[in-house]
Structures are given as structure tokens and as C-alpha cells.
Amino acid sequence: KQDKLARVDAIIEELGLVECQNTLVGDESIGLKGISGGQKRRVSIGVELVKNPSVIFLDEPTTGLDSEIALDIAQSLRTLASAGRTVVLTIHQPNSDITETFDRFMLLAAGRVCYHGPFSDSMKAFSDAGFPCPTYKNPTDYYMRVVSNPEDASKVVEAYSKSPAFLELTNTSTEPTKNVDVPVTHVSRRPEAAPMWLQFSVISARFFRSMMRHPIAFVAELTQYWFMALFVALMYLQISDTYPDGLTDRAASQWFVLVVLGFVPCFTATTMWIAEQKVLNRETADNTYPVWLFYVAKVFSIVPFELFFGVTSAAIMYFT
């Protein structure tokens, strides 16, 4: 456990999240303020780093961020690469400060490689292809403008395919590998998996904290319960004591009670499922815990709340 906590602390420091490590991430869709957009992006990267991967793939990690925050993300990724990890990312129109953090740079146009190599050599490659970058022009902006034209892109691709860098890369990638006897050992997919009871307690506690951090959702569900309970109580306020009218009315009222106690929690669960599904898909894809444990922990965490809602609603209907 201490090793895992130490790993988390190291990742927090590595990604520059020390100052906000005790701050809620937040959710703007419900008005819950939290950390900034760049910090959220770094948190999402840190979640994957907990598993200590040697290779990291990122799809446009700077999209939707301003230039300063995008540079912070790029520098954080540069730090990860310097620590020995392989970082592969796609990015559109990076500024010159971001490109300085790249070790190698690949430019694609319609699935064809226009250039691959150190970014510092890219200007020479484009110049050799007949497209020298103008002075005081952002190279990446110029490259994007050139390759956006199919004819110019074809010229760049053809020039690169004849360059020594491409020939060297091709020879290296096609060179046959030597046969090496490697002992085969079985490796568990989850060598550091926590015990099932610990997974259950952590997931349940997370659900409980999530509900406590969303008082608006709590009040909204409670209001729905009480409103429906009061509606049913007033609708059957003066039930006849005679047979069979009284029996029929009481049976109908019990049916409405079941509707209230069954429909409202289903409606709430449906509205929350959209956000929870993303978490479930990500964590089960990483084999963090089994799917069934997620639902068991979910039910266990909401039982106290649903009991409170149900008992108070039943009291309203009974005593009204």
C-alpha cells in the first residue's frame, strides 16, 4: 500500500498537480467548480500513469485549451518522456514552443508521411522539397498550409521518400531480426490487484462521496419523492370504508405507492448513468475491477439514501 501511495505522490509531483491535489476536480455541467481545464487534462493523464505504463498514447491532448495551458501539458509530457517513458501523441497546429518539446515529429497528409524525424530538420526537408519556410513564420502553420493542398502534399511526400532519412528508416524497419530464445512465463493481467473486499470498499466510498458532493441531486430526488407521496396522499385523502369501494381504492393507492417507490429511483439512476458509464467503461477496460462489483457497490452505497427517501415518503402518505 505504501508503495502505491508513493507512486501516486510521485505522479502528482511529476505532473505539477501538488498545489491542487486536495481540490475537487469539479463538474461544470452541474455548477460544481473545481480545478482548471489544463489541470483536468493532467489529472486524466495521471489516472493512466498509476498503472506505470512504459508507452503512453494520447489523442490531441491540447485540443480545446489555450496556448499557455497547452504548453503546460506539452511540458508535462516532455517530463514524462525524460523520465524514460515513450510518449506518442497526435496534435493539430502546435505553436513553436510546443514543437520544441518534441524529440521526433511526423507530419501526415491523407495518410501519407510527409516528414518523420527531428523537428529541427523539418525546415530543411520542406526546403529541399521546394517549400522553404518564410522568415518569422510559424513552421507548423506553414507545413499545414502546404500539405492541405493535395498537389503540394504529393511533392513533399515524394521528396521525403527519396531523402536519406526515409531510406535509413526503411532499411532499419525492414532489417530482419535475429532469433532469440526468450523464456516464456505467465504474467497475470493484474499483478498488483487489490483484494476484492478492498475494491468493494473503495468503490462504495467513492459512490457515497460523489452523492454527498452533489447536494442538488440529493434535494431534487427527495423533492420528487415527497411531491409524489403528497400527490398520492391527497388523491386518496378520503377513502371509503365500505366494501367493495374502499377495498378498490386502497388497492389503487398501494399501486401508486409502488409506482412512487419504484419510478423515482429509476429516473434518478438513469440521469446519473451517463456520467457513471464513462468511468465504468474506462476502469473495466483497464481491468481495474469486474463489472459486477461496480453494480454491487452502487446498490450498497445508495441503499441508505433510498431507505430514507422511502420511509419519509411512506410516512407522508400514511399520516396525511
Would you write up a description of this structure?
This protein has 320 residues and is mainly α. It has two domains: 174 residues, Rossmann fold; 124 residues, no CATH class. The protein contains twelve helices and four strands. The strands form two sheets. The chain has a two-stranded parallel sheet. Strands 3-4 form a two-stranded antiparallel sheet. A hairpin with a 2-residue loop joins strand 3 and strand 4. Helix 10 runs antiparallel to helix 11 and helix 10 crosses helix 12. The two termini are 54 Å apart. About 4% of the residues have low confidence. This is ABC transporter domain-containing protein. It is found in: Membrane. Keywords: Membrane, Transmembrane, Transmembrane helix, Transport.
Any idea how many domains? 2
Distance N to C terminus: 54 Å
Q: Give, in spatial order, the strands making up the sheet with the most strands.
A: 1-2
The main sheet comes to: 2 strands, parallel
**Which series of helices and strands comes N to C?**
HHEHEHEEHHHHHHHH
Structural class comes to mainly alpha
Beta strand %? 5-15%
Contiguous low-pLDDT stretches (5 residues minimum) are 179-191
CATH topology value of the largest domain: Rossmann fold
Gyration radius (Cα, Å) is: 30 Å
- At the first level of CATH, the class of the largest domain is Alpha Beta
The whole-number mean of residue pLDDT values reads: 80
| Assigned CATH superfamily of the largest domain | P-loop containing nucleotide triphosphate hydrolases
Tell me the number of helical segments per DSSP (H or I, 4 or more residues long): 12
Shape: elongated
Looking at the overall shape, the CATH architecture of the largest domain is 3-Layer(aba) Sandwich
By DSSP, the count of extended strands is 4
Summarize the amount of helix as a percent range.
Answer: 55-70%
